[in-house]
Structures are given as C-alpha cells and as structure tokens.
Amino acid sequence: MTESTSDTTTETRKKDLFLKLVESQDGGASVSASRKQMAEEFSITVDEVVSIEREGISSRWPPLS
After folding, report:
1. Residue 11 lies in a domain
2. What is the DSSP string of 6-54?
C-alpha cells in the first residue's frame, strides 16, 4: 500500500513542525511558549503540537536522528 500525496504532505508538515519546535526550545524558548508558537504558526491546537512532539520523539525524527 502506498501513501497518498496528502499523507506524505501531512508527514512532511509534522516533521517540519517538530524540527522547528526543537530548534525553538534549543534556542531558549520555554516548552509551553514554543508549543504555543508552533500551534499558531501551523494553525493547529497546542494538544496537536504535543501529539506531534511525542510522535517525533518516539520516531527520532530530525534533528534527533
């Protein structure tokens, strides 16, 4: 089974958010501030950011890989 274009785009978007989130925190932003910033930037909820963050950590997405 192959991924649809929207699935690939979603995965790419989540990885982009995760990278920016980690970079923001590494740059000195607090966890809560960086989550709120990403939620606003990507037009999603903070809960969705947390879910993506957990997925990125467990999957060791860049920059963790």
Report:
1. yes
2. HHHHHHHHHHHHHHHHHHHHHTT--HHHHHHHHHHHHT--HHHHHHHHH
